[in-house]
Amino acid sequence: MSIQVWKQFDANNITHSMAHYLMAIHDLLTRQGYARVTDVARELEITPGSASVSIRTLKDKGFVAEDHNRFLNLTVEGQRVAHSVRVANRSFVHFLVDVLGVDLDQAEIDSCKVEHLVSTETRQKLLNYLHFALSDDPVASAFREKLHEHGFACPGKPSCELCENHECELQCLPEHEHDHEHGHHDDPKAANAPA
């Protein structure tokens, strides 16, 4: 992985915590028509003091506005981000459960970890994929059936540092040009070797 790609993670404007605050405010506004700091704290099961500090950051970033009665609202940008995160979350859950067959509880946990990190392009491509893969199209149905029948057991490399139990699942994937372009290596020793 190149340094520039790795640095994109830190350049993300929304943290995991911020995403949940925005979605909590959105849910409160939808459900009861208003949201205050105390409501957000109760929704997220945290102290009002913690909620206040985090909401101040969201206000400073232009995602949340507070009126003179201390009622919270999402700005246009806050609404956009909350919507994007929710779409990414639901898309990943559907992909993990309905396509890959992951347990729902685990899918919710894994989706929560990445929902705020994916790009607009990735989110749109995933939605497009799901729209086809979960459709009634005979090709999509056949693909889902074949995928669930497919058994995969990686032979593994004893010295691989990338996979659990010293079994490298990556060696079983077809090699692509971009693996070399971005500095990916099959041999972990080669990846750590000085250039």
How does this model look, in words?
It contains ten helices and two strands, in the order H-H-H-H-E-E-H-H-H-H-H-H. The protein starts with a helix and ends with a helix. Mean pLDDT is 81; it is low at 182-195. The chain has a two-stranded antiparallel ribbon. Helices cover 61% and strands 3% of the residues. The chain has 195 residues and is mostly helical. It has helices at residues 3-11, 16-32, 37-44, 48-60, 76-99, 104-114, 120-133, 138-149, 177-181, 188-192, and strands spanning 64-66, 72-74. 17% of the residues are buried.
Q: What is the element layout, followed by pairings?
A:
Blueprint: H1 3-11, H2 16-32, H3 37-44, H4 48-60, E1 64-66, E2 72-74, H5 76-99, H6 104-114, H7 120-133, H8 138-149, H9 177-181, H10 188-192
Antiparallel strand pairs: 1-2
